[in-house]
Description:
The structure holds two protein chains of two kinds.
Chain A lengths: L13 H7 L9 H4 L9 H9 L12 E7 L5 H4 L4 H5 L7 H4 L23 E4 L4 E4 L3 H5 L4 E8 L5 H10 L9 H9 L9 E5 L25 E2 L18 H22 L2 H24 L6 H7 L9 H13 L4 E6 L8 H25 L6 E6 L3 E6 L10 E4 L3 E7 L6 E3 L1 E2 L6 E3 L2 E2 H11 L9 E3 L2 E3 L15
Parallel strand pairs in A: 1-7, 1-8, 4-12, 4-15, 5-6, 5-7
Antiparallel strand pairs in A: 2-3, 4-11, 8-11, 9-10, 13-14, 16-17
Chain B lengths: L1 H10 L11 H9 L6 H12 L1 H4 L15 H4 L19 H7 L18 H12 L20 H6 L3 H10 L12 H13 L5 H9 L5 H10 L2 H14 L17 H12 L4 H10 L8 H6 L16 H21 L18 H8 L20 E4 L2 H29 L18 E5 L4 E4 L11 E4 L2 E6 L4 E4 L4 E5 L6 E3 L12 E9 L8 E5 L10 E6 L4 E9 L3 E10 L6 E7 L8 E5 L2 E2 L2 E7 L19 E3 L15 E9 L5 H9 L10 H11 L1 H21 L3 E4 L10 E4 L7 E5 L18 H8 L7 H14 L20 H13 L4 H9 L2 H4 L6 H6 L12 E2 L2 H12 L19 H5 L33 H4 L19 H9 L1 H15 L6 H13 L5 H20 L1 H7 L13 H16 L1 H4 E2 L1
Antiparallel strand pairs in B: 1-20, 2-19, 3-4, 4-5, 5-8, 6-7, 7-19, 8-18, 9-14, 9-19, 10-11, 10-18, 11-12, 12-13, 13-17, 14-15, 15-16, 21-22, 23-24
Amino acid sequence: MNCNHHHDNSNYTRRDFLTKTSLGLGGLSLASMLNSENLFASNRIQKAAVNLKGLPHFVPKAKRIIYLFQSGAPSQLDLFDHKPLLNKMNGQELPESVFGGQRLTGMTAGQSAFPLAGSHFKFGQKGASGAWVSELMPHIGALADDLCFIKSMHTEAINHDPAVTFIQTGSQLPGRPSIGSWLSYGLGSDNKNLPGFVVLITKDKYGQPLYSRSWGNGFLPSQHQGVQFRSGKNPVLYLDNPPGVTKELREEQLETLSKMQKDKYADIGDPEILSRISQYEMAFKMQTSVPEVMDLSEEPDYIFDMYGEEARIPGSFASNCLLARRLIEKDVRFVQLYHQGWDHHGDLPKNIKIQCKETDQPSAALIKDLKQRGLLEDTLVIWGGEFGRTNYSQGQLTETNYARDHHPACFTIFMAGAGIKKGMTYGKTDEFGYNIIENPVHVHDFQATLMHLLGIDHEKFTFKFQGRRYRLTDVHGKVIQDILS
Amino acid sequence: MKYCFNFLIASLFLSACSMSLPEEVAVAFDQIDRKVDFNFDVQPILSDRCYSCHGPDAKTRKAGLRLDDEKIAFSKLSSGSKAFVSGSLYRSEAAHRILSDDPEKIMPTPDSKLSLSPKEKAIILKWIEQGAEWKSHWAFLAPEKTAPSRTAQKQYPNEVDQFVYDKFQNLGLYFEPEADKETLIRRLSFDLTGLPPSLDQINQFLNDSLPGNYERFVDQLMGTTAFAERLTLDWLDLARYADSHGLHADGLRTMWPWRDWVIKAFKKNMPYDQFVTWQLAGDLLPNASTDQKLATAFNRNSPMTAEGGVIDEEWRLHYVFDRTETFSTAFLGLTVACAKCHDHKFDPISQKDYYQLSGFFNNIRELGMTGDDGDYGPLLYLPTNNQQTQLKKLNAIVEKTKIQLSLTEKELAEMYDYIEQLPAVKKIDEGLIGYYPFDKITPVRVANNPSRKPNYFIADNNKNTKSTYSPKLVQGVQGNAFEFQSDYDRISIDKEIPDFEWTDPFSISLWAQTKQKKKNARQFFLGTTGGKNNWWRGWDFYLDDKNRINLRLINMAPGNMIHIRSKDSLPINQWTQLAFTYEGTGEAEGVKLYQNGAPLIFEILIDKLSKSIKPVSASGLKLEKRPILIGKTYEGSTGDNGLFMGKMDEIKIYGRPLTGLEVKQLFSQYSEQESQIDQTLIQNHWIKSHPKYTTLKNNLRQKLNQWREVMEPVLEVMVMEEMSQARTTYLYNRGNYNEPTETVETKTPEVLPQMSADLPKNRLGLAQWLFQKDHPLTARVAVNRYWQLLMGNGLITTPTDFGVQGALPSHPELLDWLALYFSENDWNIRSLIKKIVTSHTYKQKSLFGDEKNKIDPNNTYLARGSSYRLPAEMIRNNALAVSGLLSEKVGGPSVKPYQPEGLWKEKNTFSLRLLEYKESEGEDLYRRGMYTFIKRGSPPPSLVTFDATSREICTIKRENTSSPLQSLILLNDKQFVEASRVFAQRILGSQEENLQEQIKFGFRLATSRWPKESELTALIELYQRQLNYYEKNKPAANQIIQVGASEMKSSNEIPKIAAMTLVANTLLNLNESYFKY
């Protein structure tokens, strides 16, 4: 019986309202009066959060997450999962015993041969922890002792759309809430002027598609969908006043609106009116708070040295990394970056270099930056894609070229920060980099662990919809205790 | 045993309620002073907390106990005890278990993370104590009519009010008075048309004080097309209608003709049973009309993928499952999706039920992987009237020519001139447009090639015949032949062979020797068919995985093409001559297959070709010359690239249909034996070459080409169409396509009434089953949805779950009464709606008295009118309507109103048709919200922010939320700013003399009522202040008035318009403007 919100504020009488509020935007914040920490999670949801008593279920290690999603699936075999055997056996057929009849995508299923392809890139052991990282990722390599590599990730989907949907929503098919919207719904936001779930997409960087559903709310109320912050004039859709309308004019307009609405509330007592008034207040505040947080001009030069010159280009991955830090500083709960272009079905050696150049330095800079600000202690950073890539070449293997198809059976991601062990490599694949031989981590395990770090028992955190309790991890998932600090 | 002992101790402390209870439970227990009902009180608890382990799912059931099955719940378990014993708490094991604090004993178990509240425990205990009366789940029993109380009947003429009134008793609730007329007309207008009332309508309604004025107004609104559009909007959510495919490339599809059919059906007030039957099975009705077939597009609204590399069957099944789940959500109000993986945890829907139901939707010829843009699978042609006339005319001519042709054939057959014309020549050169002897392969190096490797190879010194690698030269049937061994030594023939149209006759002969039968894959001789994004367009000639010989001519697979397949297989390791001839008539009948000069028997798999087979570029943007490929297909992403492993030789391509005689002679050329020539072959050859015949044939070809050209632009829509041979349906382990476990029948769920034996076991039977008299769900589900449409909430607040986990009806008697009223009234949607909106319940004031709110904060019992924010589309409609911008155009392709730039492209560059969002022009910028183009992967932000959905799944009830982003849209979205500006012009241009009157006029337009003094003052003040600013800052005024594409009419009053724009915008931001009150 939740279509209307009338009951939400029913404990406030009109008299309360009229005596406790001053009119006008500059006055007492209605939001605080309505006991709403977060207007993106409107009053009704506050109530829902109370229903989900005890959230967080236990003391969280992480307060926020930055998830640097590498869309298209980076090749673990060229970045992190070092397999000298592939170089030794370069060009030879993938042995049937290793292949084990796993399903293939339609892109290579028709191939008459599956020649193993050794990486063209040099690997080295980094830091005291000795993690293997390829030469493509020098900055990340230098941070190895702060990172936790999971080399035994595996997923169920073999193609991008279902795999991205799976890792972001826990189901391969559309219809479920994304990670960020679960968190927004469950934990609300700690910032009054910014949404709790922000999405940043690298500009002009095309590749495998992105879908709104990856940051969508599914069956959760729509204010929990991720809000995309875009580079350029209108960082949040419809944020800017129309041309010719100054801030002052707008303020006058909103004051009139607010006054009329309050009178109306006094008349008919519809609490929904109050909720709306506070939404307008919040909207007005966002008009200042969003551009402020997006404005990198005050960042000192050494920051740009760290993140790279690209960070000066709005919408670049580097710029978005820097922006992620700024959002985290403002206590935005979940910042998700999307960087496309990792789907290397052709010319892998050439293309992966470009990708790494774009992402290596800024990703590392973000972690360093968080660390130097003391934010890494309660911020979790995740870096990775939706599945792995094959150890055999898709298409022709030549001396100078190879490509890799999708491989769901193993891939590597890394995490850093709050609650995660440092300098650790978890899980192991076979010599061929084809199958996991130690400590497999399923996507649902990854999601369960992520929830755990935020103080949530993923089995308890459910939402009842269409007669069933749904959760991010479906009916699976176990927390990977071994990587927790 | 130990437990029993404890229990004996406990029983020494029997209280009044016959068992010692923890204090909180005891208090709750004592408070229950009524008869506890199993359906309404007990089962919701049992299902929610207990069924996971003690419910319908056999696989996860613990201790053999089922609490959803009366017999088992009351019988002796293996442990010796019984879960429930009527009237006896201490003999009911369940009672002890829920009260226990022993973690080993307590139910629900601690690891289930579920628990029972003291009140819930008390309810179960009370029910046991009162005798534990068991009832079947209410929703699975047919609705029954109950009479309202006599007082209610006396007091209220409308049955709706009688039932609502009866519920008030004991609750201390009462009706609010009828809302004032302005509120009422606005409420009704939005509910029934999605539009605000016009001033004329308001005045007319206010002035009409004759009895029945309200009913007349209702009738008037229900007669409008806007009413049909309003009902359609909700149906589009239910049917997950969209203009893009949804998955991966998320390309363009053409479903809007179906949407227009829905509008038409509502406009006609088509009875609900017919409305649903057509959509589920219109194609199966006797002599199905175009409209009946078009209605079945309902089931093709499912999202589809075109992602390269996906496994076809996996996704085809997803579409079947999507239909199954949409069907049950929409019509049965049951969520069966859980049963895809296991027996339903709560409802008596088994996994087998799920797959049996899926059988109804599993029998159309469709693909799992489609192309990025376009429509696939069974397609329905929708020619315009003009096209239809032309096609009809041409059809008649074509038919006439065909008759002439066959007469001529007969006539010629009776002559014997051919006897003297016995062919002496063996060489057949006429019409030979390509000859590929495969005798030689030469490397080619282009200038500036630094490497030592050749760039490519050419065959037979023919520069149009290229290969990346070099096939092996081997002994052929004449001279050498090519043997194909690697993935890259395939030959392509460029330029010299034209791209055939299906009106072009052509023939091919070749020699082949294959080494294998290829599991699950084809071996391609040659052809031009493209990949998925080229809609597979072209022709091809290949061996399938059983080495049967196939020929296809494709416009778009599998909806528009010819496909034939030989009955027998090609032997392996044997040189064989294969040939086909094609007459160019666009029919499978015009095709012949030959093996070693003799005709081959073949099956016609698909014979539905009407449009061009000339290759196109990706997404069909333009025609594109495509070389013929030999030994491999162009498909790179289906897993079936058709690699041919073996030898080929002597390929000959003719631009005419060879006769049987000629094919035989072609074979004989390479054979040492002199073959016997049959007289009929000679006769046939003579006829087919006779000028009388060929002239007519050319004539026919010309007409067919004209026909095809008219046909090319005809709309095609994805519909349902049964395959002649039913597909086998399986039960799949956890829904995995690659784990079928057993075959299942096509059948409706066991728990519901059986399908009458005389009904066909197909979609038509399924539709008729829905409307069987004893069906408990169909009518209830539908009336609940219409109740929700008018009241904001259904009588069941979980409209997609009428199962045991769903909410219970707030007014079960009313729900049943309405259900029966609906079905007994010929499923008349309008009279159902009229019954509801003419009730006092609907017409009440929606005021918010604190006192009533305390009793019934959610307005479950309807002691006031309902109020909520309007649906996204109506908020848009309102702004456009009051400004006068709204277009009243009905139907047609979806439109693209203003949208911030770059939203499509930044997410997805796969679909070429939906790469950039290109705003509509003119009137199409101002269409009703329901016509806005829905791209599922990037739905229109101005709608989804207001809880419209991305239409990826069947939605029966939208959320109704509130967020600052909504405020930003109303304040800053170009559409709302433009509407405010045009609204301002309307206000200023109104006949009203002074500012006060003008603003009053505007206020009334926006809210349907006159402003109060204080409101007026506030707005005038706002106007004056803003005017003051804009008079001093003309450039700013100039800026705001230029927002939007619509014309600026007056120009000398720019500051006024600018100032009034903000006033108008304020009006549109009042709750009253976009809320229902």
